[in-house]
């Protein structure tokens, strides 16, 4: 039997990975004791006699009988023969518990399974081969019978271990008898008690410290090791196994059922038992290390080996703790792996999912921000447009009011001039009613001009509005570009921006044309005024154009305000000039009145000069009026032309802004208007010069009046003393003539030179230089040599002398004045 056991053991050991071996008892463990007692043994007894009788003549039977007579072994052999016959004919069917084949199938994957029974090895083999659950002999690697020793002897377990090539600690013995368990435990093996129905009850005191199971599937992970039990007090203060078993029986069954399919868990339970056995210290440390190494070919196996079995609840409290401890590393890694995987997936998926999500959200945010920006821009542009429209309206209103005021002022001025012209009551002035009429007509035309100007101004305001809008659009474009630079807007906005930029460029290109169209309307007003304002206006225009050329956002308010201020200044200057001219006229009229009064008082001397002066005065007035009229007509003509040009230009500009061909025509018109304005400016320059000469003439007339008064006094004295002091009268006359000649600077210089040649001191109080001339009584030739006029004057003085000479000289002087005034008029007409 021992040899059989060894051979079977050797055959199976090489195939197992682990060194631990589960050693099974038969009766009461894999089969019921009732089957052994009630079936197997009676079957043998019954069939043994028959077998003996049938085979009595057989040599084998004869040898057995002889042997039984001496050792009782033959009976065992006869039993084997009986069992074999029964198993073979089916009359005997060995019983096994239902959990046996399942447990064997599980254990046999990683463990060796051996059988240790009182029946012979052949009987054991026949038994496992013909069980009610089928042939289970294939899971059994080794069979041991009583040949190795009594089951209650611990040495038997040592031998078995030796035969299995393992240590007793590597042996797990499962049986139903406490004495055998104690022997195995004593040998160092792990002894597990199993309680099945019909087994002999184990006293609780004896079973204390042993693991008790009711099914092989409940095989505990740690098992009961002798050492552990030995470490605990034998009195077993620990709870009795039965109590733990009964309390946890239902749960163990359920869990066992659940864990049946998990083969690795059972294997791990066995490995845990091995570990527990190693912890007892009975095993060799090296072997334990080897088992650990062998049982750790892979991570899963090592984990599975340490994993708790489903039968864990059956285990005692300490084992449960170990199982929980062993669970933790097993369950935690998968969890950790899963968590790692999940986290990795999350980390991988999250960025992938979050990135698109964040990208989409960002895009949505960007779109929202873009929409918000566009909305804000639209709102801002609307606000700016509304503001500009309001400002343009206010500017228009101001301009209209200013223009109305201007029209009123012009009307009053025209009335004043008309009244003045009526006051002259001369024939020439009557003849000059035509220009006065023209003035009135021109006033009418001025009124028409004003209306035209209003229209032009309205057009200007429209153009200014357009320029303001253009500037606003430029500002919008700038704002848009600035916002686009900060914010990455979509392509739609870029297109809009580009379109706006193009529109802004076109508008900027149109600006100079529009602004050029504004020039005539401005120069209309400049014609009435002086050149300074024109220059200033040009400068302002140039500055505006430069600003526009630079791309600066020049608000139209400043330009319009400047224009308004300039126009106002121009109007003020014009008004001042008109006032000055009117004052000059008043002064001249006053002087005339004074002369008349003096004439009426002085009699002879005053008549001719007064007449001539009166003749001259109307002429001078005529000159003035002519110059004024001509200036007015020139200005009016230019105004008319400019008005027409402005109207046409503004109409052209306003109507032709949309078409480029019309814009070119408008530019041509504007250029023409600029040329017209230049010619008008030149004319105005000549007119202003003539006006200055007229002022000088006025001064000379004043001096003439003074001299006449003096001549009057001299004539009176001459009358009183005809023979004496002719020089004084002559000097006075010369003074007057010189004063008249003084109009011409060259004549004054020449006369002064000739007079200084004589170098005689004068006693006259009137004018020192002229008194020098007067003192030169012998210097008449000098005076005559000064000029042709001087010759005439000298002749007159010589021939006439006295009162008559003075009158003739005055007439000559008046003629000179007339000639000069005529030359002025001619120059003005030219
Ligand atoms: C399976 S062989 C027959 C079993 C038998 O004879 C026997 O006595 C079993 O007792 P044990 O508890 O030792 O297996």
Summarize the structure.
It contains 28 helices and 6 strands. With 830 residues, the chain is mainly alpha-helical.
Main features:
single chain; 830 residues; mainly alpha; six-stranded parallel β-sheet; 28 helices; rod-shaped; disordered C terminus; binds ligand L4RZE5RM; methionine biosynthesis
Give the distance, in angstroms, between the N- and C-terminal Cα atoms: 163 Å
What is the helical fraction, as a range of percent? over 70%
Strand coverage percent: under 5%
Number of strands: 6
Structural class: mainly alpha
Task: Give the integer mean of the pLDDT values.
Answer: 56
Ligands present: the ligand CSCCC(=O)C(=O)COP(=O)(O)O
From the spread of the alpha carbons, the general shape counts as rod-shaped
Strand order of the largest sheet: 3-2-1-4-5-6
Radius of gyration: 73 Å
Low-confidence stretches: 6-17, 221-250, 255-266, 274-360, 416-447, 449-567, 598-659, 723-804, 825-830
How many helices in DSSP terms?
Answer: 28
* Main beta sheet strand tally, sense and closure: 6 strands, parallel
Region (Disordered): 221-375, 387-830
Biased composition (Polar residues): 460-470, 480-490, 753-773
Keywords: Amino-acid biosynthesis, Hydrolase, Methionine biosynthesis
GO molecular function, one term: acireductone synthase activity
Protein architecture, described:
The radius of gyration is 73 Å and the shape is rod-shaped. It has a six-stranded parallel beta sheet with strand order 3-2-1-4-5-6, with helices on both faces. The chain has helices at about 1-15, 35-55, 60-70, 75-90, 100-105, 120-130, 155-165, 180-185, 205, 225-230, 240-260, 265-280, 285-295, 300-305, 315-425, 425-430, 435-485, 490-530, 530-550, 555-600, 605-655, 660-720, 725-740, 745-760, 770-775, 780-785, 790-800, 800-830; strands at about 20-25, 110-115, 140-145, 170-175, 190-195, 210-215. Helix 4 runs parallel beside helix 6 (about 120-130) and helix 21 (about 605-655) packs parallel to helix 28. It has about 850 residues and is mostly helical. The chain has 28 helices and six strands. Bound molecules: the ligand CSCCC(=O)C(=O)COP(=O)(O)O. Ligand L4RZE5RM binds near residues 25, 26, 40, 117 and 119. The site of ligand L4RZE5RM has 12 residues, from helix 2 and helix 6.
């Amino acid at each position: 039997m021992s040899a059989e056991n060894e051979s079977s053991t050797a055959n199976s050991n090489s195939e197992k990975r682990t060194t631990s071996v589960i050693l099974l008892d038969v009766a009461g463990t894999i089969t019921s004791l009732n089957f052994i007692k009630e079936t197997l043994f009676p079957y043998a007894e019954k069939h043994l006699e028959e077998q003996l009788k049938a085979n009595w003549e057989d040599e084998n039977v004869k040898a057995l009988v002889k042997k039984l007579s001496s050792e009782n072994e033959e009976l065992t052999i006869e039993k084997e023969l009986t069992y074999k016959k029964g198993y073979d004919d089916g009359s005997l069917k060995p019983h096994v518990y239902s959990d046996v084949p399942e447990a064997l199938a599980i254990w046999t994957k990683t463990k060796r399974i051996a059988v240790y029974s009182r029946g012979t090895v052949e009987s054991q083999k026949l038994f496992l081969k013909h069980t009610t659950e089928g042939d289970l002999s294939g899971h059994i690697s080794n069979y041991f019978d009583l040949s190795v020793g009594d089951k209650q002897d611990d040495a038997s377990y040592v031998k078995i271990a030796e035969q299995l090539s393992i240590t007793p600690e590597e042996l797990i013995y499962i049986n139903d008898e406490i004495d055998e368990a104690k022997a195995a435990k004593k040998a160092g093996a792990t002894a597990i008690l199993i309680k099945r129905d019909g087994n002999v009850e184990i006293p609780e005191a004896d079973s204390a410290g042993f693991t008790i199971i009711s099914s092989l599937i409940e095989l505990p992970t740690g098992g009961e090791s002798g050492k552990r039990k030995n470490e605990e007090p034998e009195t077993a203060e620990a709870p009795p196994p039965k109590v733990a078993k009964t309390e946890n029986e239902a749960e163990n069954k359920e869990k066992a059922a659940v864990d049946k399919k998990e083969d690795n868990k059972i294997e791990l339970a066995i490995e845990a038992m091995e570990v527990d056995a190693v912890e007892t210290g009975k095993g060799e440390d090296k072997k334990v290390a080897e088992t650990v190494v062998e049982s750790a070919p892979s991570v899963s196996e090592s984990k599975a080996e340490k994993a708790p079995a489903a039968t864990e609840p059956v285990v005692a409290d300490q084992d449960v703790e170990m199982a929980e401890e062993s669970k933790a590393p097993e369950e935690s890694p998968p969890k950790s792996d899963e968590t790692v995987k999940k986290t990795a997936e999350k980390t991988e998926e999250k960025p992938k999912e979050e990135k698109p999500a964040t990208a989409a959200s960002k895009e949505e945010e960007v779109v929202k921000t873009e929409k918000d920006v566009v909305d804000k821009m639209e709102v801002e542009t609307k606000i700016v447009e509304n503001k500009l429209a309001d400002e343009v309206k206010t500017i228009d209103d101001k301009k209209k009011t200013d223009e109305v005021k201007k029209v009123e002022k012009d009307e009053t001025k025209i009335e004043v001039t008309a009244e003045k012209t009526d006051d002259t009551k001369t024939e020439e002035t009557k003849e000059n009613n035509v220009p006065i009429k023209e003035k009135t007509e021109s006033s009418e035309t001025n009124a028409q001009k004003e209306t035209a100007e209003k229209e032009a101004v309205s057009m200007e305001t429209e153009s200014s509005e357009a320029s303001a809008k253009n500037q606003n659009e430029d500002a919008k474009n700038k704002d848009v570009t600035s916002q686009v630079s900060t914010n990455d807007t979509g392509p739609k906005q870029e297109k809009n921006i580009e379109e706006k930029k193009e529109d802004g460029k076109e508008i900027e290109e149109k600006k100079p044309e529009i602004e050029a169209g504004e020039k005539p309307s401005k120069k209309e007003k400049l014609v009435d005024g002086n050149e300074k304002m024109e220059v200033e206006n040009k400068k302002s225009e140039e500055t505006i154009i430069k600003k526009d050329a630079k791309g600066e956002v020049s608000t139209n308010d400043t330009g319009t305000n400047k224009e308004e201020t300039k126009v106002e200044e121009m109007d003020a200057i014009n008004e001042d000039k008109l006032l000055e001219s009117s004052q000059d006229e008043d002064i001249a009229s006053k002087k005339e009145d004074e002369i008349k009064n003096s004439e009426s008082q002085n009699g002879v001397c005053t008549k001719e000069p007064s007449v001539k002066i009166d003749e001259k005065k109307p002429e001078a007035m005529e000159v003035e009026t002519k110059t004024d009229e001509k200036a007015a007509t020139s200005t009016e003509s230019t105004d008319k032309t400019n008005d027409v040009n402005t109207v046409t230009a503004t109409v052209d500009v306003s109507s032709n802004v949309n078409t480029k061909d019309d814009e070119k025509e408008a530019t041509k018109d504007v250029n023409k208007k600029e040329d017209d304005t230049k010619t008008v400016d030149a004319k105005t320059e000549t007119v202003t010069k003539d006006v200055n000469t007229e002022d000088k003439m006025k001064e000379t007339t004043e001096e003439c009046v003074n001299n006449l008064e003096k001549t009057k006094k001299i004539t009176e004295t001459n009358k009183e003393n005809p023979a004496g002091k002719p020089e004084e009268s002559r000097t006075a006359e010369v003074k007057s003539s010189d004063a008249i000649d003084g109009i011409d600077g060259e004549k004054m210089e020449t006369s002064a030179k000739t007079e200084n040649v004589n170098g005689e001191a004068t006693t006259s109080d009137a004018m020192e230089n002229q008194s020098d001339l007067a003192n030169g009584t012998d210097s008449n030739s000098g005076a005559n040599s000064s000029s042709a006029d001087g010759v005439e004057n000298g002749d007159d003085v010589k021939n006439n002398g006295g009162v008559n000479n003075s009158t003739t000289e005055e007439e000559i002087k008046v003629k000179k004045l007339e000639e000069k005034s005529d030359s002025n008029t001619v120059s003005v007409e030219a």
